[in-house]
Write a structure and sequence with these properties.
Chains A, B: One of its GO terms (molecular function) is glutathione transferase activity. 2 copies of one chain form a homodimer. Chain A is of the alpha+beta class. The first copy, chain A, has 2 domains: 77 residues, 3-Layer(aba) Sandwich (Glutaredoxin), CATH 3.40.30; 134 residues, Glutathione S-transferase Yfyf (Class Pi), Chain A, domain 2 (Up-down Bundle). In chain A, 55% of the residues lie in helices and 8% in strands. The first copy, chain A, has a 4-stranded mixed β-sheet with strand order 2-1-3-4, with helices on one face. In chain A, strand 3 and strand 4 form a beta hairpin. The radius of gyration of chain A is 17 Å and the shape is globular. The two termini of chain A are 31 Å apart. Chains A and B meet through helix 3 and helix 7 of A and helix 3 and helix 7 of B.
């Protein structure tokens, strides 16, 4: 096995929760590529592959090292052109950048606020200390203060997904009839919430909830590999 | 000339302001296709082409009639495959649907609230009466009440464009190095505001303002054909 995916892990190595790693898990499944997962804690990342990266996912594919979920997706399409594409053309590669930035700027801070204490609690001891100090410095507030703002985020969360909800009237995936990388981008954000806080933010019959359920079922149901928190 | 673009007009037939028509104006320019504009008021639309459409843009291309800006863009790429593509692949066609719904659900109601009285005032007499009664019924408030909510929208407008602003750190257009149809989708919304209320909602050095200026300059500066209100 020459393909390794370095993936963020909590104290329970099997509880994969990073939104960015999930994007890559789905990308590799979409391409039908085998790999071995190397679970790492936050504080172990700097030592991976001789200090090659400050973040995961990091993919080793033979002698190639690729970091960042978007770069990995681009790499996989380039390296394995005979397998199903993650972008279906140059236009898709460019437009997926908009959707990446939409997901990041619209959903990620909300998930952070809702789930921050749950994320903290599922980490190992060394990672808990790192997570608390780095996030409190970055966000300028204690984890508990950030979590207090999470209550309002739960209420407003479904509304943030209105563009996706409206789009689902036209087609079943952001990729059209079948999923493409931007589906995995938005899936990653919701899977992050599902696997950490497990907070219900969507009604069961919400078209977005139905789309998320379709995504969980993709590629042999790989998204179900981690249960809801 | 066999190509006709039916386009919404105010009392001044040259003041094209419809966001959807602007998407098509830019699409036709992108493809390098000539056409004649047929300006129509709101109340004239039902009589166009023997009642073919309830909305504009409507494109007549020889014996083909195509309505809806997105459908027109798809048609143009299919009918003129040798000219520059508006989507660059099947992935682009699908992802542009997400961006269309993002623009519509995030920007259009805000522009409506900011500009509704300006739009009313630039229409001819018959259209003013139609516009007032149809919009007041649709939105459940008088035009003046809707416009009162516009003040808050001005303040919050720039923030709604954060996904685009962040994406512009990576590439100059939603289409990548060059514009594609989703650039014209978002351009249409901001051009609508520029040509009706003319309200300043972005700082001059905002990356989104610089992107909008690049869009105005495209295709011989066709976006400048109508001055800012």
């Amino acid at each position: 096995m020459t393909r390794l995916l370095y993936a963020l892990a909590g104290a329970d190595k099997a509880r994969q929760f990073s939104p960015h790693v999930w994007k890559t898990v789905m990308s590799l499944a979409h391409k039908g590529l085998d790999y071995e997962t190397v679970p790492v804690g936050f504080t172990e990342i700097p030592a991976i592959e001789n200090g090659s990266t400050a973040t995961v996912p990091l993919l080793r594919d033979g002698d190639r090292l690729v970091r960042d979920s978007f770069e990995i997706a681009l790499y996989l399409d380039e390296a394995y052109p005979d397998r199903p594409s993650l972008f279906c053309g140059e236009g898709g590669k460019a437009m997926a950048r908009f959707i990446e930035n939409w997901s990041q700027s619209t959903l990620h801070m909300a998930v952070t606020r809702i789930a921050i204490l749950d994320i903290h609690d599922l980490l190992g001891p060394a990672d808990r200390a790192y997570f608390r100090s780095s996030r409190e410095e970055r966000l300028g507030a204690s984890l508990e203060e950030i979590a207090a703002a999470g209550k309002a985020e739960v209420e407003g969360f479904a509304k943030k997904l209105q563009p996706l909800r409206n789009m689902l009237k036209v087609q079943p995936f952001i990729g059209g009839e079948e999923p493409l990388f931007p589906d995995y981008i938005v899936f990653g954000a919701l899977q992050w919430l599902r696997t950490t806080a497990g907070t219900k933010v969507l009604e069961a019959d919400d078209p977005v909830a139905l789309w998320f359920a379709r995504c969980l079922d993709l590629h042999g149901g790989i998204g179900h590999r981690v249960t809801a928190a």
